[in-house]
Amino acid sequence: MTIWVDADSAPNAVTAILVRASLAREVDVVLVANRWIQKPKSLRVSVVTVGAGDDVADDYIVEQCGPGDMVITFDIPLAARAVEQGARVVTPHGVELDASNVRERLSKRDFAEQLRSMGIETGGPDAFNNAHKEAFANALDRWLTAQGK
Prior knowledge:
- The protein is of the alpha/beta class.
- It has a single domain (2-146), classed as Rossmann fold (3-Layer(aba) Sandwich).
- Helices cover 43% and strands 16% of the residues.
- The protein contains five helices and six strands, in the order βαββαβαββαα.
- It has helices at residues 12-24, 56-64, 76-84, 102-117, 130-146, and strands at 2-6, 28-33, 45-49, 70-72, 88-90, 96-97.
- Strands 3-2-1-4-5-6 form a six-stranded mixed sheet, sandwiched between helices.
- Helix 3 (76-84) packs antiparallel against helix 4 (102-117).
- The chain is globular and about 45 Å long.
């Protein structure tokens, strides 16, 4: 059981929650990024720096994750691929994605991308705030508890 983090876009507060959970709940966390990031002070947290390029970090996470793992990402295509691998996905905003809802999210994301390509402004995710931080911490706790951690 490993938590895989799309670390290029993860808010610092999410990383801090994961570091605390790695120690308290004895779970391994892997931060994957295509830029250098400082390794947090936890023996249960590791950092993997992949090469530059679109989807290189995503591809690495999908190749490594599997059933029983969790993936943390805002990236909906990555989420869909991770769900196909049997992983549970949670966004940094605390939204849980699984086989029952990730395809709908992917369709909405693709539609918004089509609108943007036509010059229509669609906006992005809400700025990370304390409500998101709490929702993420609660989703993580539910998953860890279900895993017996």
